[in-house]
Design a protein that fits this description.
The protein is mainly alpha-helical. It contains seven helices and no strands. α2 (10-20) crosses α3 and α5 runs parallel beside α6. The chain is flat and about 80 Å long. The termini are far apart.
């Protein structure tokens, strides 16, 4: 006996899952968003590995990210580096996700900005304690204004 799920085309399987799950359907829609290609300043060409969709962006390999950075004059700074709309600083020893984030920022994807450093619990408590002390001092200064 044949198993219909093994013989089903991936597109049909995705369509069936999307029909049952709204979150999955929305994620498929997001991943299918087309990306406008970025052209190289000197030749006007688009790199062959430039991602056509958001899904293709998330599937870029380390080597492809390095090639894109080199192709668009970001890996080795030159006179063209800062003529792109959003130039980036590139280092070969960055982890894959950092390279992906920087290339995403370079091609204009939202959410690829430099992450904001989150404060630790101790830093938050210390900041709250300092704010409370400053507030208490202000209250005392207001009460003792006549004494000055």
């Amino acid at each position: 006996m044949e198993n219909p799920t093994q013989n089903a085309k991936p597109a049909q399987l995705a369509e069936r899952r999307a029909a049952k799950n709204a979150a999955f359907r929305e994620k498929l829609r997001q991943m299918a968003l087309p990306l406008a290609p970025l052209v190289q300043l000197t030749t006007g060409e688009v790199h062959p590995s430039f991602p056509g969709t958001l899904l293709n962006f998330w599937l870029l390999t380390d080597a492809q990210l390095e090639e894109l950075a080199h192709f668009y004059h970001q890996r080795t700074p030159c006179r063209w580096t800062f003529h792109y709309p959003c130039p980036i600083a590139w280092a070969a020893r960055m982890p894959l996700e950092e390279k992906r984030r920087r290339i995403g920022r370079f091609i204009g994807l939202r959410g690829c900005e430099t992450p904001i450093r989150l404060k630790s619990e101790d830093e938050i408590l210390d900041e709250a304690r300092r704010a409370r002390i400053a507030e208490e001092e202000d209250v005392l200064r207001g009460k003792l204004y006549w004494y000055r």
